Amino acid sequence: MQFARLNDVNLHYQVIGSPVSRPLLVFVNSLGTDFRIWRDVIVRLVGEYAILTYDMRGHGLSDVGRTPYSMEMLADDLAALLGHIEARPAIICGVSVGGMVAQQLYARRPDLV
């Protein structure tokens, strides 16, 4: 298990492969789930991409932190996590609220996408 203290919360994440040698594919979970929802997708893509999955604040093993949440806050968490792992621009894949986080990240930090 990997954890990083970012933006006043501990975020649970997993990196598979090397973001230096492969394009980075980031998976953002939906409301009320954790990064395990991507397991069947990841097994098909491992080796082709470096993969980052994480539990958004308040989900899975990540801290709840302060509430209420905003899309800006969730996108800032992802931006901080990408900085933490020293990622180059990434392909962001989200479902439900995870898709909204991906869009907000692009709006706030297009350099990361």
Please sum up the structure shown:
Helix content is 29%, strand content 24%. It is of the alpha/beta class and 113 residues long.
Can you give a write-up of this model?
It is a single chain. The protein is α/β, with parallel strands linked by helices and 113 residues long. It is 29% helix and 24% strand. The protein has 3 helices and 5 strands, in the order βββαβαβα. The protein has helices at residues 39-45, 71-84, 97-108, and strands at 2-6, 9-16, 24-28, 50-54, 91-94. Helix 2 crosses helix 3 (97-108).
Computed Rg: 13 Å
Q: Please summarize the sheet with the most strands.
A: 5 strands, mixed
List low-pLDDT spans: none
Q: Percentage of helical residues? A: 25-40%
Structural class: alpha/beta
Strand order, largest beta sheet: 1-2-4-3-5
Instruction: Specify the number of helices.
Output: 3
Q: Overall mean pLDDT score?
A: 95
Question: How far apart are the termini?
Answer: 25 Å
The outline comes out as globular
Strand content: 15-25%
The strand count comes to 5
Give me the strand/helix succession: EEEHEHEH
Labels describing this entry:
5-stranded mixed beta sheet; 113 residues; globular; 3 helices; alpha/beta; 5 strands
